[in-house]
Amino acid sequence: MRHTTLKAALLAAMTGLLAGEAGAADSRKNPFTLVYEGAITRNEPGKVNIRPVTYKLNGLRISANVYTPAQYDPKKKYPAVVVAHPNGGVKEQVAGLYAQRLAEQGYITIAADAAYQGASGGQPRNVDKPAYRIEDIHGMADFITRYPGVDATRLGLLGICGGGGYSLAAAQTDKRFKAIATVSMFNSGRARRNGYADSQLETIQERLQQASAARAQEAADGKVLYAGDAELTDEQIAAQPFDLYRQGYEYYWRSHAHPRSTFRYTRSSLLDLMRFDATNQIELINQPLLMIAGSKADSLYMSEDAFAKATGTKDKELYKIDGATHIETYWVPKYVNAAMDKLTSFFAKTL
Fold first, then answer.
1. Contact criterion met (CB below 8 Å) for 15 and 30
2. Residues 204-222, mean pLDDT to the nearest whole number
3. For 305-341, how does the pLDDT look when each residue is reduced to its tens digit (9 = 90+)?
4. Which pLDDT value is given to residue 232?
5. Is this prediction's pTM over 0.90?
6. What is the C-alpha to C-alpha distance for residues 291 and 124, in angstroms, rounded to an integer?
7. Are 190 and 302 in contact (CB under 8 A)?
8. Cβ 128 vs Cβ 266: under 8 Å
9. DSSP states of 281-332
10. CB distance 27 to 259 below 8 Å
11. Which helix (H) or strand (E) holds 55?
């Protein structure tokens, strides 16, 4: 149920996520289909501009948006930041918001749809394998470091939610990234393996059997099975046991919905997801590291765990935004501003 019914609007109003209150744009009314507060509606000389681009990565067509700062001059040199989007998200949502805000601070930024997702190519749709998501980050670095005006020696990385976990993995070996930041980091492997908040430890083997069966079926007759593709009612959303899931459904399916954004992923992807962990070999990160999370986020344990294990860097900080939940760091102005204040000082110091 993607459209907003009266009942959905009432629910969103009660939770503070009504699209009008959040300032989110209707994707159909924005020429770039952006769905965040303050989104660019047209490119104007002397202001921050957005440039839709495409490029090839391992034979697939990748769709991305490049944001350039005000008074951009391709003959000058600018620091750049790669922005990796959340699981289920697309570049037009929170990744675009942070990419635009960083461009306002003088950075050239890029936000790309993951391969097999959003407007990027790849079949079957919505494959969600960690190796692909990590490669997406390397690919964004390949592209943006060759973009006119980019100083390739001053490249930063920002990962949001699942993109944060994959950014930690990518930065372990990709030393083009001189500084790494995450917002509301989500360790996709741990969550898919153990369940959110480690709530499904007793069913790991059962779920691995289901994923294995899905892979076997794909090989046998080509039929692709999906997980996470539920169409929840407003009552079912309100009854979700975790803030992340409840507010996540409200954000992605109600207040900041985008037609290419979906929670679904191929069930066979779990074979890869469940053996992945964003903190595995995290000690290889020796670059400056900033991790941002809401103090009330029920995903905070993931950032705390990764931060403690990131022993390879002496320049690291875990910054907790007082009062924020996971999803609220995506759109609530005061929490986004708090995150941006930290990101601005962090990248100014490290890039």
1. no
2. 97
3. 999 999 999 999 999 999 999 999 999 999 999 999 9
4. 85
5. yes
6. 33
7. yes
8. yes
9. TGGG--S-EEEEEETT-TTHHHHHHHHHH-TT-SSEEEEEETT--TGGGGT-
10. yes
11. strand 49-57
C-beta of residue 48 within 8 angstroms of C-beta of residue 68: yes
Give the strand pairing for 108-112 and 150-160.
Answer: unpaired
Residue 212 CB neighbours (<10 A): 14
Q: Domains of the chain, with CATH numbers?
A: 6-187+230-263+277-350 (3.40.50.1820)
* Residue 236 in this model has a pLDDT that exceeds 80: yes
Task: Quickly list DSSP for 141-155.
Answer: HHHHTTSTTEEEEEE
Distance CA 319, CA 309 (A): 16
Label residues 243-268 b or e (16+ Cβ within 10 Å = b). Answer: bbbbbbbbbbbbbbbbebbbbebbbb
Can you give the pLDDT at residue 25?
58
- Contact (CB, 8 A) for 253 and 2: yes
Number of residues that make up the chain: 351
Query: Interior CA angle at 124 toward 119 and 129, to 5°?
Result: 85
Residues 6+ apart with CB under 8 A from 10: none
Residue 5 pLDDT class (50, 70, 90 cuts): very low
Structure tokens at 285: 């990160």
What percentage of the chain reaches a pLDDT higher than 90?
A: 88
Query: Helices in the chain by DSSP H: which ranges?
Result: 6-15, 19-22, 94-104, 130-144, 162-173, 188-194, 204-221, 234-238, 243-250, 270-273, 300-309, 333-350
Distance (Å, whole) CA 246 – CA 163: 20
Mean pLDDT calculated for residue range 155-163: 99
CA distances for 62 relative to 68, 150, 162, 163, 326, angstroms: 19, 20, 19, 16, 28
Give yes or no for a contact between 288 and 350, defined as CB atoms under 8 angstroms apart: yes
Retrieve residue 129's tokens. 């394998």
